[in-house]
Amino acid sequence: MKTIEDFNFKDKKALVRVDFNVPQSADLKVTDNSRIQAVKPTIEKILKDGGSVILMTHLGRPQGKHLDEFSLKNIVPEIEQVLGAPVKFCPDCMGEDATKMTGNLKPGEILLLENLRFYEEEEKGDSQFAEKLAKYADAYVNDAFGTAHREHASTAVIAKYFPSTKFFGLLMAKELEAINKVLGSGEKPVTAILGGSKVSTKITIIENILPAVDNLIIGGGMAFTFIKALGGKIGKSLLEEDKMGLALEIIEKAKAQNVKLYLPVDAIIADEFSNDAERKEEEIYDIPDGWMGMDVGKKTQELFNDVIMNSRTILWNGPVGVFEMPNFSAGTIALGDSIAEATKLGAFSLVGGGDSVAFVKHFGYENKVSYVSTGGGAMLESLEGKELPGIAAINS
Ligand code: AMP
To answer: Average of pLDDT values for 77-81?
Structure first.
């Protein structure tokens, strides 16, 4: 893996693709600056070497138009505050201004280019657009894991103009290391916990991770398709009827590959999909008609806890219950507690993919696990075994 640690940026201009697609309030203030914090080490390393940094990113979906509400000028103060350094702003990522401002940039300075997606060429992966961007700098650094699964001009296409000076930023390197740990290089036993609503959205992940894991825990709405396929009564719990065959295939594949598959043994059931519904605890194979499983029960929490406490490498993707409703969040909280405890005792834990980050932040587990991925879609595709264009472009 070629990272910025392998290069001295002294007197060099680095064009750094970051993901500053940050959430904003109605008055366009940044409401969560984690994505800016996440690339600070990369920027600092380049400046410390004596180089200069040209930051480029997208923000929102302006679809090729210059729209003020998506202008990066609105987030400059936040970037300056996080980096603790002045940030120059170029009001266009193309044209004379950009050529002049990038040309005049001095070692130690940071320049932010206006939103790349003000040009439709960015998302189209236009080579000429990428080549123009490439002319601004001596080196290209990709530290935008969140867009690594997109083959856009600035995330992938541009790399070919830097055949020997293209590098992964430090955030990207951390993401790739974390994925490699759960998919192969991590200490055993390796346990993957997959929750969430549907089998269909997780099937490719399951198939891809089976050869790498020792234990596979399946919870959340998707578990009911397995339980029903195994002959259980699931009432009106979430079911993907057309995926029952697939569920049985996964069970067989897990057996064949010596992976221990754990399903919930009990559930908190409700008479309707509402926080205020009537609720009780029931055996997972015996959910009465008119009731649905909304969370895992106490026995399941203990079972999952035992597996997790005996694991050295842990991947967590998806909640095991309807965590948005307080009455059905206990199972997901207990699971988070188990993972936090295992991490404290030395296990490596990665949380990521899709909306996983939302509930980890929601319950404050962010600092209690080893690594929380910054890229929902990109992490999902990595776990599915796909080679991401942004990563392939640097590696090739
Ligand atoms: P996903 O986006 O597939 O990771 O799924 C996350 C969603 O799964 C959350 O919004 C949860 O509310 C939902 N979920 C988890 N467990 C259940 C369940 N037993 N029944 C229905 N939805 C669930």
So the answer is: 98
